[in-house]
Amino acid sequence: MALRRVVMFGEDTLRKTSRKVEVFDDKLWVLLDDMQQTMDQFGGVGLASPQVGILRRVIVVEDSDTEKRVELVNPVITKEVGQQREVEGCLSSPGEWGYVKRPERISLTASNRYGKEFQLDAKGVFAITICHEIDHLNGKLFTDLADEMVEDEEELEKAKRSRNRKCKRKKKRR
Ligand code: NI
């Protein structure tokens, strides 16, 4: 396993569209392992492969209710219900925060690292995380969607607390 460099806002890679994974081989597993390790190092609840410079449809997300990580290969959202608006940030843009509107609940299909397809339902902060990371696969950044950026430190803490209240487990989050 190896730590990968996190690509930052302003770099072209983050604006490109990622390609579908066709081969579920050891190259993919190394990428996933490295993404896991990069998340361990830098924190955050999600990472998309373009953020480590690889344009493949691969994301790793943490379920904010169970704190378990899920690897999603070729994720496709099949259903969106409701709306929520919470503060978001991104490992590729430390210190930048903004309010984004997202669906409250989503359903999706994806494959695991061995190519086995499965279905997943997500709500609340987990749904936000998945939508944010899938956007990365399409070259879209949260700042494109944010209707308000949060600059004030106190305002930001309040916004994070409000978002974290949606999580079942109350671990302190970034
Ligand atoms: Ni991001």
Written description of the protein model:
This protein is an alpha+beta fold. It has a single domain, classed as Peptide deformylase (Peptide Deformylase). It is 27% helix and 27% strand. The protein is built from four helices and eight strands. It has a five-stranded antiparallel β-sheet with strand order 1-2-3-6-7. A hairpin with a 5-residue loop joins strand 6 and strand 7. The longest helix has 17 residues. It is globular, with a radius of gyration of 15 Å. The structure holds nickel (II) ion. Nickel (II) ion binds next to helix 2. The site of nickel (II) ion has 5 residues, from helix 2.
Give the neighbour order of strands across the main sheet: 1-2-3-6-7
| CATH homologous superfamily title | Peptide deformylase
**Terminal Cα span:** 25 Å
CA-atom Rg in angstroms: 15 Å
Number of domains: 1
What ligands can be seen in this structure? nickel (II) ion
Indicate the CATH topology: Peptide Deformylase
Major beta sheet summary? 5 strands, antiparallel
CATH level 1 name: Alpha Beta
Q: Judging by the overall fold, what is the CATH architecture?
A: Alpha-Beta Complex
| Structure summary, number of beta strands | 8
List the helices and strands and how they pair.
Layout: H1 26-42, E1 46-48, E2 58-62, E3 69-81, E4 84-88, E5 98-102, E6 105-111, E7 117-123, H2 124-137, H3 142-145, E8 148-149, H4 153-164
Antiparallel strand pairs: 1-2, 2-3, 3-6, 4-5, 5-8, 6-7
Distinctive features:
alpha+beta, Peptide Deformylase, binds nickel (II) ion, single chain, 174 residues
